[in-house]
Amino acid sequence: MTQDAMTSPEAEQTDEQRTGTGPTPGTDGLADRTAESEAETVVDRTIIEARDLDVYYGDDQALQGIDMEIPEKQVTALIGPSGCGKSTFLRSINRMNDLIDIARVEGDLYFRGKNVYDEDVDPVALRRKIGMVFQSPNPFPKSIRENVAYGLKVQGKDENVDEKVRTALERAALLDEVEDQLDESGLDLSGGQQQRLCIARAIAPDPEVILMDEPASALDPVATSKIEDLIEDLSEEYTVVIVTHNMQQAARISDKTAVFLTGGELVEFDDTNKIFENPENDRVEDYITGKFG
Ligand SMILES: Nc1ncnc2c1ncn2[C@@H]1O[C@H](COP(=O)(O)OP(=O)(O)OP(=O)(O)O)[C@@H](O)[C@H]1O
Known about the structure:
This is Phosphate ABC transporter ATP-binding protein, PhoT family. Keywords: ATP-binding, Cell membrane, Membrane, Nucleotide-binding, Transport. The chain has twelve helices and ten strands. By secondary structure, the protein is an alpha/beta fold. The protein is globular, with a radius of gyration of 18 Å. The two termini are 21 Å apart. The longest helix is centred in the last third of the chain and has 14 residues. A hairpin with a 2-residue loop joins strand 1 and strand 2. The protein is 34% helix and 23% strand. It has a domain of 200 residues: 3-Layer(aba) Sandwich (Rossmann fold). The structure holds adenosine-5'-triphosphate.
């Protein structure tokens, strides 16, 4: 998927708006971060948990029985050969697969202990807590300021928009470069700057999780390096889950690595050092050492 459906007007229109009254606070069925984080401060706390998750496209099964616990405020990389289901898993976390007619999900996917597939979860609200950045930088054909302010306006967060825009640009390591051109088109920026603008757009509504689907694959090495530094910085504040084809990138920036292999199986999930230095599974070792894939 190349379209930034997470933050696009189409995504807001396509999704059915549902108002939930679940067991957790709020009207979207989802827990409130402040209340939870005050209650508990545990290192390596799980924020996303998949339990026996299967995803099908029509009759074809793309993911098989995935079990995974993703820790809060760390970088988790999803790696594996083409077609093994990495993007499908990423999209299942914030229900982007809902937008694909033939996609069907079975099993459980919890965000802070709440199953995101429960009836009372509003997928649009879920995507505000779990933002997404795609492979190709795709700013709207609008000013830099409007690009970042988009998510805030949709939510009716109209107060202090300029300040919030600046904060998001600063967190995305872009403010210094664009401070004097906030009213110029986002499309006039370089590819790397456009991708950081898309990251600023994703973080402006203050999500808890940022999903990234090969965010640097269309960029040159210098721009890639900036995005990698940024991802490491972002993980102090956010949970980052990133799909990458680049094993060196996964090794450089992630804390945990999940290795998917053909058939949509999660073969190994562990600390990144362990996966790259001493994997348990022979097929993972073969993949890491380039014997296949
Ligand atoms: N929208 C879709 N409709 C039908 N089948 C799909 C769709 N998206 C993915 N698939 C299929 O599901 C399987 C997993 O695809 P997915 O894109 O999740 O894998 P991936 O590991 O992210 O691949 P890549 O690294 O090439 O992006 C593949 O067989 C793919 O053809």
